[in-house]
Specification:
The complex is a heterodimer of chains A (256) and B (323).
Chain A: H1 2-19, H2 22-42, H3 44-48, H4 57-74, H5 78-86, H6 89-94, H7 102-128, H8 137-165, H9 168-184, H10 197-203, H11 207-220, H12 225-255
Chain B: E1 4-12, E2 18-27, E3 32-36, H1 43-50, E4 58-63, E5 66-67, H2 72-78, E6 79-82, H3 94-104, H4 109-122, H5 138-149, E7 156-160, H6 168-183, E8 188-193, H7 196-202, E9 205-210, E10 213-218, H8 220-225, E11 230-236, H9 242-250, E12 255-261, E13 264-269, H10 272-285, E14 290-296, H11 300-308, H12 312-322
Parallel strand pairs in B: 3-8, 3-9, 6-7, 7-8
Antiparallel strand pairs in B: 1-2, 1-4, 4-5, 9-10, 11-13, 11-14, 12-13
Classes of the chains: A mainly alpha (256), B alpha/beta (323).
The complex binds adenosine-5'-diphosphate (ADP) and magnesium ion.
Residues 13, 15, 17, 19, 37, 39-45, 323 of chain B line the site of adenosine-5'-diphosphate (ADP).
């Protein structure tokens, strides 16, 4: 089908661009090492409170940081779209019979695949640091899938906002403004029982926390009914973000 | 059947700018048609509407036999579009640019690979085919732009200011390519330009656009021959009275039309060599001081001047300022 073929072609282009930036790959690998070391040192005291499933704080942190990298790298995905608009790539595409949905589709797919790669790097490094997942194969898969879903969702949202805002500065400000609250209103680096009550309540409505919880449940091998729920919620969230991006792209096309 | 038929096309942008105020023209099969106009005249707007990138406010356009609003995807399959700003992907190689363009136009496999090689060869990019486009010169990027527009062998190609910003050598190469396309390939070309010389040399028919309207239309020769005779351009000295100068030239024998612009008078005469002394004498008698006098055969510049009442250069500079 043409829509799928076009999406794959545009996705391959994004992948080629990423792979041609060795510095990007190197940073993707070094960054999680720094995060793991930094966070585990900074929150050493937290770890000694001993409320962490799986025992060690580092083991608690690993799936959380996999989601953190997913969030941080996908949230700025819209920058690439603004660049493509500026350079006339998007207009050239629109003057071909290419599927109108392929551009956003390829960018969502690229965001998802990129963050899955970064999550995998984090898992490998945490393994080197002595972390052992409760469930090897399934756990790894679940962490990657959670990261991918959240990355796809934020990639879509970022592209949609980029189209609505139309400017790098506004997109940057919007994303900087949302990322940290979403991070701290989740169990990414802090166990739920250690949070104030109201925060615990708020986390339930935070897509980042859905991803963190799903990833951690899978990683610890304690998967239960909530895992399926979190996946469903993440899927729905991604669908909404994707729809937002597709509509924003429709608006962009109609504006000219 | 005509390659393009445009009827009373109008476009008002959301910010209220009336970019097109009722434009009609037709492009014949296999010809190079020039849309000539200064910056801001509405050329790109017209091209973007014909290439389905922008919707007209009103009016109709048939492109390659298909109505742009009724079946835009079919139009997109039949045309090649080369935008005013180079839109090659600089983070890819020339070959990758062409291949992606081909895939989006539903080509694939050995057929596409062959076509890519053929275009790389033809546009003298074979040696640079696997280099990042970032490293290409301006002329190379522009040739790649055109090659990408041709990947699916369209019968109609849109070139929006293909030579703006190119050095003279690259411009000559581009002119040759465009001519070959039409003459040997039988491709119809709609070319916009703000170079009078380019429109004059390349196009079989041309339309002069000014402020969203077509102010003159025909072959370059027809347009020029409408202005029989020569043109005398008189630049008056600082502080001279232009109105008075125009009045005293009005009843010059053999003079037909006078257009004034700041300190400059453009006088249309049947025989320039004979009229120059008379013009100079008349002005001196009236006490109007002259800075400079020039005599020229009619050019498209004069066609433009006659149609709009201002010179092309002035309009171009003004359009540049606002755009
Ligand atoms: N997207 C747009 N939104 C608003 N005004 C525009 C837009 N594009 C062009 N214009 C305005 O429309 C007029 C015609 O522009 P354009 O078609 O680009 O002229 P040309 O290509 O002949 O230089 C100019 O005044 C320009 O500023
Ligand atoms: Mg233009």
């Amino acid at each position: 089908m043409k829509a799928i073929r076009d999406t794959l072609q545009l996705f391959m282009r994004e992948i080629r661009i990423s792979l041609r930036m060795p510095i990007w790959i190197i940073i993707s690998i070094i960054q999680p090492i720094i995060w793991l070391l930094l966070f585990s040192q900074l929150f050493r005291v937290v770890g000694s409170l001993g409320t962490f499933p799986g025992g060690s704080y580092l083991g608690f942190l690993a799936p959380g940081l996999a989601i953190m990298s997913s969030l941080f790298s996908s949230a700025y995905g819209g920058m690439g779209l603004l660049r493509d608009i500026e350079r006339g790539f998007v207009d050239r595409l629109l003057a071909t019979p290419a599927s109108r949905g392929a551009l956003i589709g390829a960018r969502v797919l690229h965001a998802a695949v990129t963050v899955m790669f970064q999550a995998a790097v984090i898992l490998v490094i945490s393994f080197v640091l002595g972390v052992r997942p409760g469930s090897w194969v399934l756990g790894t898969l679940i962490v990657l899938l959670s990261a991918g879903l959240l990355g796809g969702a934020f990639g879509a949202a970022s592209n949609g906002l980029a189209l609505l805002a139309g400017r790098y500065e506004i997109l940057m400000a919007l994303m900087n403004f949302t990322i940290l609250p979403l991070t701290f209103l989740s169990t990414m680096i802090m166990a739920r029982p250690l949070m104030p009550g109201w925060m615990q309540a708020v986390t339930r409505f935070n897509p980042v926390d859905w991803a963190v919880s799903a990833a951690r449940d899978g990683f610890d091998g304690t998967a239960s009914g909530t895992l399926a729920l979190h996946f469903l919620l993440l899927l729905a969230f991604m669908a909404v973000c994707w729809l937002l991006a597709a509509r924003a792209f429709g608006r962009y096309r109609a504006r000219n | 059947m005509n390659a393009i038929e445009v009827q009373d096309l109008r476009k008002t942008y959301r910010n209220g700018v009336e970019a097109l105020r009722g434009v009609s023209f037709a492009v014949e099969e296999g010809e190079i048609f020039g849309l000539l106009g200064p910056n801001g005249a509405g050329k790109s707007t017209a091209v973007r509407i014909l290439c389905t990138l922008s919707a007209p406010t009103s009016g109709r356009a048939r492109v390659a036999g298909v109505d742009v609003l009724e079946d835009p995807d079919e139009v997109r399959r039949r045309i090649g579009y080369v935008a005013q700003e180079s839109s090659v992907d600089i983070q890819a190689t020339g070959r990758e640019n062409l291949a992606l363009q081909g895939h989006l136009q539903d080509l694939s496999g050995p057929g596409l690979r062959g076509r890519v090689d053929e275009l790389l060869e033809r546009f003298d990019l074979a040696d640079a085919a696997d280099r990042m486009v970032e490293t290409y010169s301006g002329g190379m990027k522009r040739r790649l732009d055109v090659a990408m527009g041709l990947i699916h062998r369209p019968r109609l190609l849109f070139l929006d200011e293909p030579t703006t910003g190119l050095d003279p050598e690259s411009r000559a190469v581009m002119w040759r390519e465009v001519r070959d396309l039409a003459q040997e390939g039988g491709v119809s070309v709609l070319l916009t330009t703000h170079y009078l010389e380019e429109a004059d040399r390349l196009s079989r028919h041309l339309a002069i656009v000014d402020q969203g309207r077509i102010v003159a239309r025909g072959t370059p020769d027809q347009l020029k021959s409408e202005l029989h005779g020569d043109r005398i351009t008189v630049e008056l000295a600082e502080g001279a009275d232009v109105e008075r100068a125009a009045r005293c030239l009005a009843d010059l024998p053999g003079g037909s039309e006078i257009v004034t612009e700041e300190r400059t008078l453009h006088v249309q005469v049947t025989n320039g060599a004979r009229a120059v002394p008379a013009v100079v004498a008349a002005l001196e008698d009236a006490g109007v001081r002259i800075a400079q006098v020039a005599l020229a055969r009619p050019s498209l510049d004069d066609v433009y001047l006659r149609a709009t009442g201002h010179s092309f250069e002035t309009a171009d500079a003004a359009g540049e300022g606002e755009g």
